[in-house]
Specification:
CATH architecture: 3-Layer(aba) Sandwich
Number of domains: 1
Strand content: 25-35%
Structural class: alpha/beta
Shape: globular
Largest sheet: 7 strands, mixed
Strand order of the largest sheet: 5-6-4-3-7-8-9
Number of strands: 9
Mean pLDDT: 96
CATH topology: Rossmann fold
Bound molecules: adenosine monophosphate
Order of helices and strands: HEEHHEHEEEEHEHE
Low-confidence stretches: none
Number of helices: 6
């Protein structure tokens, strides 16, 4: 895994002073790394009951849609405010840097569906906590939240509580 970790670029003081940003674009542009990451992550869910994959804007769309394709499932989107064209439900949450609101289409999840959440980085866990609340409010169940990378020193898993989480790479 160390070779994959080395493919992620650290950008200091982005987007604000004091933040060490994990830039995954350097991993994504490398065909064998991207392929390996998606294969390993998808393999974890092949024998699990997943109905649909949810990608969180924006880098979660890349991981989420690749996983959905591999698992032969559909993909749904959680987006920043004002981007989704149909009626939405929204949730606000705290970020490692600031706060934000996310939206989902009202009909994205059918009651009873088992949802796999996908995102690039688990930082403080606030985003996925909020997305998980949305999923539950809509009658869905979270199978797991899957991340390419986890910043373990931020203790995001504490905020996730009983939401199962998996990360391929830990920093
Ligand atoms: P959080 O809610 O704190 O877990 O933040 C997760 C979201 O913010 C993910 O969608 C990440 O893309 C992004 N994010 C937060 N901190 C970082 C970081 N240090 N490097 C890269 N992405 C980050």
């Amino acid at each position: 895994m160390d070779d994959l970790k080395k493919k992620i670029r650290d950008i200091q003081d982005f987007p604000k002073p004091g933040i060490g940003f994990k830039d995954i674009t350097t991993l994504l542009r490398d065909a064998s790394s991207f392929n390996r990451v998606v294969d390993i992550m998808a393999h974890r869910y092949i024998d699990q009951h997943v109905d649909i994959v949810l990608g969180i804007e924006a880098r979660g769309f890349i991981i989420g849609s690749a996983l959905a394709y591999k698992l032969n499932k559909g993909v749904i989107l959680v987006r920043k405010p004002g981007k989704l064209p149909y009626k939405t439900r929204s949730v606000s949450y705290a970020l490692e840097y600031g706060s934000d609101t996310l939206e989902i289409h009202l009909d994205a999840i059918e009651p009873g569906q088992r949802v796999l959440i996908a995102d690039d980085v688990l930082a403080t866990g606030g985003t996925v906590r909020a997305v998980s609340d949305l999923i539950k409010e809509m009658g869905g169940t979270v199978v797991e939240a899957a991340f390419l990378a986890e910043l373990t020193f931020l203790n995001g898993r504490e905020k996730l509580g009983d939401i199962p989480a998996y990360s391929l790479l830990q920093f």
